[in-house]
Design a protein that fits this description.
Blueprint lengths: L3 E5 L3 H13 L3 E5 L2 H7 L4 E7 L7 H10 L8 E5 L5 H4 L7 E5 L4 H15 L1
Parallel strand pairs: 1-2, 1-3, 3-4, 4-5
């Protein structure tokens, strides 16, 4: 069964690029432009959430914290794409799921490598 990745980013071009490359690696990819859409498409088969830190209504960190508080994504690893290190309050939520971040700009090769590592560690 394919691993399922939820991508959350407000930029449609970024979503399209990431989706194309992740699907080329054999992953199933679902996209959302904000926290509300993320919750609507999140399901129990989601294996990884990739979030842009800067989203229109809430930060990626706030979306992640909210999903965790609702126990919706309690055990799903998360990878943040950000321009700066993550807020310590978000980093404190590392357990039990993996929490990682990549500072932008990031190469597609580095992103795909990190995704593969996170999914292997979560299995």
């Amino acid at each position: 069964m394919k691993k399922c990745i939820l991508l959350v980013d407000e930029d449609q071009d970024v979503l399209d690029l990431l989706k194309f490359n992740l699907e080329a690696e054999g992953y199933e990819v679902v996209t959302a432009k904000d926290g509300r859409q993320a919750l609507a498409v999140l399901h129990n088969r989601t294996d990884l959430i990739i979030l842009e830190e800067k989203l229109p209504e809430q930060s990626g960190g706030e979306v992640f914290q909210w999903l965790r508080s609702q126990n919706v994504a309690k055990d799903i690893p998360a990878l943040f794409l950000t321009t700066a290190p993550l807020n310590p309050d978000i980093v404190a939520q590392r357990s039990p799921a993996t929490l990682a971040y990549l500072v932008k700009p990031v190469s597609m090769r580095a992103l795909l490598k990190r995704v593969k590592t996170i999914l292997a560690e979560a299995s």
